[in-house]
């Protein structure tokens, strides 16, 4: 393995190498980096301070509540996708706002949800009609997710809420039909919410905001707030924060609204690692293969779902360095492959690998397919020591499948 420093952004917090405290951890495991998390939070907090916008943590991307105290001084609250996330936000940040958006609320959960939420965003006029009065009577701020029908995605159609036939948000045509049939719906609304981005820069937000104004501009002056949703890569080094601030100030001035942002990745971008050891190496024809004790399917499912190729310490693109290897997991799924990487030296059994940017969409999406153990989660503190946050075992696999 190459042992020079790799100072790409995902590995900068550990100074481009695997420090001794990480080498001592059993694998596979996730490591969250306190200093990197606080750095991201400070960027988002300064944005809120300069503009007066309110920034939420989208828990769907990062819900490791042991780390919420790092964020608490800088955020307005949490965003939840349903009852359990709303409860988590309310319990772990009791003095902060709890915003909830769900594509479809359940009648048997809604009353309990109202005990945790401050803002309720509905996906459709029919859901607004069904639950809006109940939420209003409970003193909640009511919003509707809109679909401006303006797509900025290239690839990753699974993450495009403005794709044709999307189930996410209300189009203007749907809105007009609903209000013509029930004019009181408009009076229920305090705000509009749109979420159309995924790992994108503020130029896409700017053009989206233009589309929102074109489709719903006559409604916006009646609102108290507008939520710009998530997908903003605000803490990425090349992100244009000045353009984002112009968008925020435009909305504040044009419609006299409070602006909310609810990034997920931005809070924990490049602030975590997945450590894994090589279990075996082999060759099939021209393909060099290494089997890891970490699984793409179980421990980093977005690798297969998006799909994408996560950064790996010391490794290059295929054929960039002398030895190209296909990295795969230990499960029975043939497609349990992380990707192909090149190395300065051949991999061997026992080598330790560190995948970067593994704090987001990992611990909240992993699974125990094939009976794979859940990797334990560690916190690398600012002083370089590591604290174990979890102690997963057989019971975590068994108890989700039955009671005996």
Q: Which stretches are poorly predicted, pLDDT < 50 over at least 5 residues? A: none
Tell me the structural class: alpha/beta
Topology as a string of helices (H) and strands (E): HEHEHEHEHEHEHHEHEHEHEEHHEEEEEH
Shape: globular
User: What's the number of helices?
Assistant: 14
Percentage of residues in strands: 15-25%
What do the pLDDT scores average to? 97
- Main sheet specs: 8 strands, mixed
Query: How many strand units?
Result: 16
What is the helical fraction, as a range of percent? Answer: 25-40%
N-to-C span: 46 Å
| Gyration radius from CA atoms, angstroms | 23 Å
Structure notes:
There is one protein chain. This protein has 404 residues and is of the alpha/beta class. It has 14 helices and 16 strands. The strands form two sheets. Strands 1, 10, 11, 12, 13, 14, 15 and 16 form an eight-stranded mixed beta sheet that branches. Helix 9 runs parallel beside helix 10.
Task: Provide a short characterization of the protein structure.
The protein is of the alpha/beta class. The protein has helices at 20-23, 34-51, 68-71, 83-92, 107-114, 125-137, 172-181, 184-188, 202-216, 241-255, 265-268, 296-299, 302-305, 394-398; strands spanning 29-33, 54-58, 77-80, 97-101, 119-122, 141-145, 191-193, 225-227, 258-261, 272-284, 287-292, 323-328, 337-343, 352-356, 376-380, 386-388.
List the helices and strands and how they pair.
Layout: H1 20-23, E1 29-33, H2 34-51, E2 54-58, H3 68-71, E3 77-80, H4 83-92, E4 97-101, H5 107-114, E5 119-122, H6 125-137, E6 141-145, H7 172-181, H8 184-188, E7 191-193, H9 202-216, E8 225-227, H10 241-255, E9 258-261, H11 265-268, E10 272-284, E11 287-292, H12 296-299, H13 302-305, E12 323-328, E13 337-343, E14 352-356, E15 376-380, E16 386-388, H14 394-398
Helix pairs in contact: 9-10
């Amino acid at each position: 393995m190459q042992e020079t420093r790799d100072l790409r952004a995902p590995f900068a917090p550990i100074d481009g190498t695997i420090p001794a405290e990480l080498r001592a951890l059993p694998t596979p495991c996730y490591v969250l980096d306190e200093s990197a998390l606080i750095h991201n939070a400070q960027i988002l907090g300064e944005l809120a301070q300069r503009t007066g916008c309110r920034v939420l943590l989208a828990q769907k991307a990062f819900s490791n509540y042991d780390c919420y105290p790092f964020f608490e001084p800088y955020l307005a609250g949490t965003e939840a996708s349903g009852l359990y996330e709303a409860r988590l936000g309310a319990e772990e940040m009791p003095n902060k706002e709890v915003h909830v958006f769900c594509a479809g609320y359940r009648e048997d959960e809604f009353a309990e949800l109202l005990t945790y939420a401050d803002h309720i965003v509905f996906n459709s006029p029919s859901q607004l009609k069904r639950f809006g009065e109940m939420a209003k009577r409970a003193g909640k701020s009511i919003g509707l997710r809109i679909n401006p029908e303006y797509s900025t995605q290239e690839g990753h159609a699974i993450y495009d809420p403005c794709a044709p036939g999307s189930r996410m948000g209300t189009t203007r045509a749907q809105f007009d039909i609903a209000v013509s049939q029930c004019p009181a719906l408009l009076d229920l609304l305090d705000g509009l919410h749109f979420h159309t981005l995924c790992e994108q820069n503020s130029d896409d937000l700017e053009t989206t905001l233009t589309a929102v104004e074109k489709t719903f501009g006559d409604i916006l002056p009646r609102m108290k707030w507008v939520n710009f949703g998530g997908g903003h890569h605000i803490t990425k080094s090349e992100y244009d924060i000045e353009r984002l601030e112009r968008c925020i100030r435009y909305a504040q001035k044009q419609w006299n609204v409070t602006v909310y942002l609810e990034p997920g990745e931005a809070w924990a971008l490049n602030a975590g690692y997945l450590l894994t050891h090589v279990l075996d190496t082999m060759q099939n024809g021209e393909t060099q293969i290494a089997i890891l004790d970490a699984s793409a399917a179980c421990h980093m499912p977005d690798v297969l779902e998006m799909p994408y190729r996560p950064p790996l310490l010391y490794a290059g693109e295929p054929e960039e360095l002398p030895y190209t290897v296909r990295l795969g997991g230990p499960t029975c799924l043939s497609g349990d492959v992380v990707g192909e990487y090149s190395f300065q030296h051949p991999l061997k059994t026992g080598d330790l690998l560190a995948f970067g940017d593994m704090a987001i969409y990992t611990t909240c999406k992993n699974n125990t397919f094939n009976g794979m153990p859940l990797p334990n989660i560690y916190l690398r503190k600012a002083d370089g020591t590591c604290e174990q946050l979890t102690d997963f075992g057989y019971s975590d696999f068994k108890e989700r499948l039955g009671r005996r």
